[in-house]
Design brief:
Layout: H1 8-22, E1 42-48, E2 70-76, E3 79-87, H2 90-95, H3 100-125, E4 127-130, H4 137-153, E5 161-165, H5 167-173, E6 195-199, E7 202-206, E8 219-223, E9 227-240, E10 247-259, E11 265-268
Parallel strand pairs: 4-11, 5-7
Antiparallel strand pairs: 1-2, 3-10, 5-8, 6-7, 8-11, 9-10
Helix pairs in contact: 1-3, 4-5
């Protein structure tokens, strides 16, 4: 049977739509470096040092221009995650409109995998704001304060601050006497997946994959623009199985992520 009804453009769009709907952290990250990409590509990100402020009057109104320097970071697109499955008769299945469940599941699976990579990058690339035990709501709130203080001392902007919390930590923060307030989107700002409220200037997001040693409560506070993400659903294709009376569909998600400013990502991961 020839595969005549498969439409890779429409299929890719459907997968990406489900991918985006399932994401929790990725929509908030810095994606300005996305463009034409392939696995193995490297995005070079250049930053220039901040000029030194001098006392103009104290220097008799004579100043010497400072020599500017720059630093370069590399965001490597080094993740290639694929899916594939067999359909007995792809023409009939697609024409009947029953790819919806498969599209949803494939997009959700790709999202879960990519979000796990992002969380690992936040943990490894961030700065520790504390490791004390978190067993009560007061402990959890104190950890949020510690993260907030660390961000303030690092001169991290107050806007677009997010706080990712594990389910165990969310349960403590949502307990009796909770200080969380409602998350009210501004303008066209979407209501993000996983948002449970606002606290101390953070949009608080509960993430099921933010696990820690022995399921201990864990938190990561960060400035959204300080974490880069580059990715796309790179390929989807269909073909005929050689040894079965069936067809296959497969796809590839290519992406990379990096903490661009370590002090703008503050972790609170209690020791075991």
């Amino acid at each position: 049977m020839a595969i005549t009804n498969f439409q890779p453009t429409i299929w890719s769009a459907a997968i990406l739509e489900r991918f985006n709907q399932a994401n929790v952290l990725i929509p908030a990250l810095n994606r300005q470096y996305e463009g034409e990409l392939r696995a193995g590509n490297t995005v070079k990100i250049t930053a220039v040092n901040t000029p030194t402020i001098v006392d103009y009057a104290g220097a008799s109104r004579v100043i010497t221009p400072a020599q500017m320097t720059d630093t370069t970071q590399s965001l490597v697109i080094n993740q290639e995650k694929a899916f594939s499955f067999i359909v007995d008769d792809i023409d009939d299945v697609q024409s009947a409109g029953s790819f919806e469940p498969v599209t949803r599941d494939a997009g959700a699976a790709l999202s879960e995998d990519a979000e796990a990579v992002v969380i690992a990058a936040l943990k490894s690339g961030g700065t520790s704001a504390g490791t004390g035990a978190i067993t009560t709501a007061d402990h959890a709130y104190a950890a949020v304060i510690a993260i907030r203080q660390a961000l303030v001392k690092a001169n991290v902007p107050t806007s677009d601050r997010l706080l990712a919390v594990s389910p165990e930590c969310a349960s403590l923060l949502l307990g009796s006497g909770s200080k969380l307030t409602n998350f009210d989107p501004v303008g066209d700002e979407p209501l993000r997946n996983g948002v449970i409220g606002r606290l101390l200037g953070f949009t608080v997001i509960e993430h099921p994959q933010l696990t820690h040693t022995s399921n201990r409560p864990a938190l990561i506070g960060f400035h959204a623009a300080s974490v880069g993400y580059v990715g796309q659903i790179d390929k989807t294709e269909a073909g005929r199985m050689e040894n079965k009376f069936a067809d296959y569909v497969r796809g590839l998600n290519v992406f990379g992520t990096k903490v661009l400013r370590a002090t703008a990502v503050q972790t609170y991961l209690p020791a075991s």
